[in-house]
Amino acid sequence: MPHPASGLFLYALCGSLRKNSSNHALLEAIGAEAGNGTSVEICTLIGDLPIFDPDREGDATPAAVLEFAEKIRRADGLIISAPEYAHGIPGGLKNALDWLVSRDEIPHKPVMLVHASHRGDHALEALTEVLKTISVTLVDAAFFRINLLGKTPEQRREILADPETRDRMRTHLQAFVTATELRGKLEV
Ligand SMILES: Cc1cc2nc3c(=O)[nH]c(=O)nc-3n(C[C@H](O)[C@H](O)[C@H](O)COP(=O)(O)O)c2cc1C
Q: How many folded domains does the chain comprise?
């Protein structure tokens, strides 16, 4: 499978802030498959966003939120990977999405959902519902799932470096890139 060809900027949101996060490892591995001018940047702002407060929207929007929203605005598409916490979406990611609800950066933004566990369907379902509610364009064909739960960093590296896994990641990324490019053309 060739590398997806495009010049897109994809912004990746990781639901885990953990240094050794398997979701972060998955997003990094997908980013490494992008190639050919497509850049994937993993968001580092989620842990710095204040707790969402509708009284701090508009002119009172915190600087960190403005920086985050600007990244979302510039992104041609988003890649999101999150663990399940207590059958739900991790609070930090949900908080980041809450800041976007009343803003104009998120509607119709193409989203590729990926999942680093064989479990966590409650969180996946909840996240899908939230993303639909905030009117993103969820690219179903791009959904990619692989089980990294409970694996050591070394085991993860092996799984993610496997040629068949890399091929699958490229296939799903290509589906996302194609859908994102198509949307860009339709908008012109
Ligand atoms: C507070 C907490 C709650 C969790 N709740 C669930 C859960 O409800 N269902 C599940 O499948 N895993 C649960 N887990 C396990 C995580 O989803 C799992 O360890 C995941 O791989 C963490 O992602 P990360 O490696 O990207 O940090 C929980 C972990 C923590 C720390």
A: 1
CATH code: domain of residue 80: 3.40.50.360
Domain that holds residue 76: 9-182
Ligand 1 atom closest to Cα of 23? Answer: 26
Residue 25: the pLDDT is 98
Residue 2 lies in a domain: no
Nearest-atom index, ligand 1, CA of 88:
8
Report if residue 3 sits inside a domain.
Answer: no
CA of 75 to the centre of ligand 1 (A): 28
Could you write out the three-class secondary structure of 90-129? CHHHHHHHHHHCCCCCCCCCEEEEEECCCCCHHHHHHHHH
Residues within 6 Å of ligand 1 by CB: 16, 18, 21-23, 83-87, 117, 119-120, 149
Interval 138-149: pLDDT, tens? 999 999 999 999
* Separation between Cα atoms, residue 81 and residue 101, nearest integer Å: 19
The answer as to whether 4 is a domain residue is no
